[in-house]
Amino acid sequence: MVESLAEYVPQSLAMILAALAAAGLVFGFIGTSTFLFIWAERKISGRIQDRLGPTRVGKFGLLQSLADGIKLVTKEDFVPTGADRLLFRIAPYVAFCASFAGFIALPFAEGVVAQPLNVGAFFLLAVLSSEVFGVLLAGYSSANKWSLFGGVREAAQVVSYEVPRSLCVLVPICIAGTLNLNTIARQQEGWFWNWYVFHDPFTFLAFVIFFIVATASCKRAPFDLAEAESELVAGFLTEYSGMRWSYFFLAEYASMFAVSGLASLLFLGGWHTGLLPFEPAERFGPLFGNLVDVGVFITKGSLLVLVMMWMRWSLPRLRIDQVMLTCLKYFLPISCGLLIGVCVWQLYMPKVLAEGVRVVLAVGFVVAAIVVVLSAARLKPSPQLSGAFTKP
């Protein structure tokens, strides 16, 4: 884009215009996806709790997020007495900018990335971890003990969970031999058994552990101890309202998609469907092919976000000591073992046997998924209790 604009305007102005265009596209995607994710979460929570969810505003309640946004804009924006006014005001923007910056290196398709980086995986992990500074500033500056407790909890949780998260990211990186997310996704081109999640048992388990610890890093239940309304009123959000409150949730939903997109790139083939033995951009042209790739990538990331929502409304919240114990006593040693295991596998496993294990894992997963779907389809509502399900 910079080269094309440089033909008409000076190089420096072309770089600025290209950066503004990329930032606008990223912000538009974050806003649109958050709009839909909020609606989806309310519908999912409603169904799980035997409710309908939003139905009044727009078809299927699709405009409920718009109504909520208008309500937040009209709410009073105030700073509590005794709060640090500067830190209190900038904390939401610090949290959002950290999530926003993660999308700079997140490729949606071949060449569809704001800024391709050779250390994209490292950059993404680093900037997403900095969201904790906004939460910590919000808790410290609110002049509220519940807010402070929430901020400190978030700091302890993020610092702890980013260690096993980084170790799980190293597992596919050891296989790919690069930190470039474009290259990692390109190496998984072809059929779905080429995805790194099926490379060996260690990468399969690394994907599971990564997804769990990534959910914790996004402050999602059952790891949402920074808010914990049953204990801390609303945690670090207690004194916030209106648009500043909404920026924290923009950051949360943006981080959810960012880590889901990272999981897709590292383990699930990135923008590749897994059902075609070729790259669509090469066969159908760059325009149509990249549209297909972008759609596939967004679908994979959105499905993982929906799984996070499913977990939130299905599992009870853990205590803070349970959250820390789970990380330090279980996830950390398990992730270390997975990293050592994949290195040994790469060095000593015969290629023929490794390919056989890859196919067995892929086929076994597909068969298990089909069995689960068919079993769920056979469940019928019980006439005794509305919303209850029983086997026929």
UniProtKB/TrEMBL annotation:
Its main location: membrane. It is an enzyme of class 7 (translocase). GO terms for molecular function: NADH dehydrogenase activity; oxidoreductase activity, acting on NAD(P)H, quinone or similar compound as acceptor; quinone binding. Keywords: Cell membrane, Membrane, NAD, Quinone, Translocase, Transmembrane, Transmembrane helix, Ubiquinone. GO terms for biological process: aerobic respiration. It catalyses: a quinone + NADH + 5 H(+)(in) = a quinol + NAD(+) + 4 H(+)(out). It is found in: Cell membrane; Membrane. Belongs to the complex I subunit 1 family. NDH-1 shuttles electrons from NADH, via FMN and iron-sulfur (Fe-S) centers, to quinones in the respiratory chain. The immediate electron acceptor for the enzyme in this species is believed to be ubiquinone. Couples the redox reaction to proton translocation (for every two electrons transferred, four hydrogen ions are translocated across the cytoplasmic membrane), and thus conserves the redox energy in a proton gradient. This subunit may bind ubiquinone. HAMAP family: NDH1_NuoH. This is NADH-quinone oxidoreductase subunit H. It comes from Limnoglobus roseus. The gene is nuoH.
